[in-house]
Amino acid sequence: METRILWVDDEIELLRPHILFLENKGYRIDTSNNGYDAIETIGSKKYDLIILDEMMPGLTGLETLSRIKELEPGTPVVMVTKSEEEDIMNKAVGSKIADYLIKPVNPNQVLLSIKKNVHKQQLVSEKSTADYRAEFSAISNSFSEARSFNDWVNIYKKLVTWELELNELSDTGIKEILFYQKNEANNEFAKFIRNNYTNWFKDKSLDKPVLSHTLMRNKVFPIVDKNRKTTFLLIDNFRFDQWRTIRPMLHGVFDVRSEDFYCSILPTATQYARNALFAGLTPLAIEKIMPGLWLNDNEEGGKNRYEEDFLRRQLQSLGKNYKLYFEKLVRSEAGKKLLDNLEKVHNADFSVIVFNFLDILSHARTDTEIIRELAEDEAAFRSLTASWFEHSDLWAIMRELAARRHTVIVTSDHGTVHVDNPIKIQGDKETSVNLRYKTGKNLNYNTKQLFVVSDPAQIHLPKSNLSSSYVFACNNDFLVYPNNYNHYVRYYRNTFQHGGISMEEMIVPFIVLDPKTA
């Protein structure tokens, strides 16, 4: 399709060599020697780009620019001027010009500006596609070479980076290749977990990742010891790709001190992972030490009611005498209330704020048709997350914390994964209801499809009765009972779930932010 450009300059005849150069490159160039004619032309024709001289008699370049933006706000405008005065540049940039060239311009400068503003998406698409194809084999080979959790962190980071880079491209073929490569990676990651996870609890000398129950001790408290105004933000279901999506918004407020990861324990569900995180104990240890504060899956009652009690006990056991503030935000009005009373956070040495919104959004996407449509895939769900964050009380709270010079830690207790492959399983009425893991007795399943833990004590999990076991779904699988099978498959397919084994659920971002210096 021919690219049409309007060049507006009161000395347009002197630019004839430039115009011939661009026409030889395949561009259609229309010209005008004053602002009034240019506006009339723009009213009758559509252009891909407008090149506009800033210093013209009659209607000036800036005045012409203002009228162009009224007629065609989406058309990029390149301003050309002899003046390098800062005031003129500020006015031009403030009027949302696409580029700024200083006279005398040469044809290649103009060509580069056209390519940046007209062909940018195409050029980025071609380069991104070529770069990913070049790296495809190396990424695939790294799956079989991965020996440690950190190796898998690097693989996951690379895949997420490409997922975000290729997200805006129209080339569905290359995105499909990445989808299958990520699927293969998750299958290999599940094998890695099956082969190593139990040993992380058996062998104390083994090189293993920071797990949920060691996170506070190993990564959080050392930061608080050095930064006594530290706020710990736990966003339920928060994943690395979502962090990368909101990170640009933080640029003017925070410096990213570190972008790290830890490993969520199994099950990657709030009841287990978050209780372990705050208690500094495995679920089995919590049940043994504080039996009155632990409820198994088949028991009635809130499973996460004692998080602050668990944290205070951990602080006491480690001799940490921080002044603690703890808040869990579930409803939107709670965030606004905290904003109005942020002095409570500021007066503490160590503040912990739990945000449940992403978890609520995940469940709403399962239950609400309109949310399903708004977040029909991974890219749309990231976009919805970014939109929520930009207008959220969480972001408002973070800006206030930066102004008050707080170090801020952003993390989660587990991630969430997009599921689309149903796996049949049978169990009695005491079996847990989670779609990504089941615990109970008399479970019937295909052992090849699941990670099976017959003795829960091996991975420091409690059991509801003597014969209880745990089974975990891997990659994008979800567990469905044979009764009314088709109904539940239709209902839960293409939803976001957690509790099982995937990079998205187990590889949890751990971000440390420092407030920008004034």
Plain-language structure description:
The protein is α/β, with parallel strands linked by helices. Helix content is 46%, strand content 18%. It is built from 21 helices and 18 strands. It has helices spanning 16-24, 35-44, 61-71, 86-94, 107-118, 120-145, 149-166, 172-202, 215-226, 240-246, 270-279, 283-289, 307-317, 332-340, 343-347, 357-367, 369-374, 378-390, 393-403, 485-492, 503-506, and strands spanning 4-8, 28-32, 49-53, 77-81, 99-102, 230-235, 254-263, 324-329, 350-355, 407-411, 417-419, 421-424, 437-440, 451-453, 469-472, 477-480, 495-497, 507-515. A six-stranded mixed sheet has the order 7-18-10-6-9-8, sandwiched between helices. A five-stranded parallel sheet has the order 2-1-3-4-5, sandwiched between helices. β1, α1 (16-24) and β2 (28-32) form a beta-alpha-beta unit. α7 (149-166) packs across α10 (240-246). It is elongated, with a radius of gyration of 28 Å. The model has no long low-confidence stretch (mean pLDDT 90).
Provide a brief overview of the structure.
46% of the residues lie in helices and 18% in strands. It is of the alpha/beta class.
Oligomer: single chain
Number of separate helices: 21
Q: Low-confidence spans: pLDDT under 50, at least 5 residues?
A: none
Average pLDDT taken over every residue? 90
Strand tally is 18
- Portion of residues in beta strands equals 15-25%
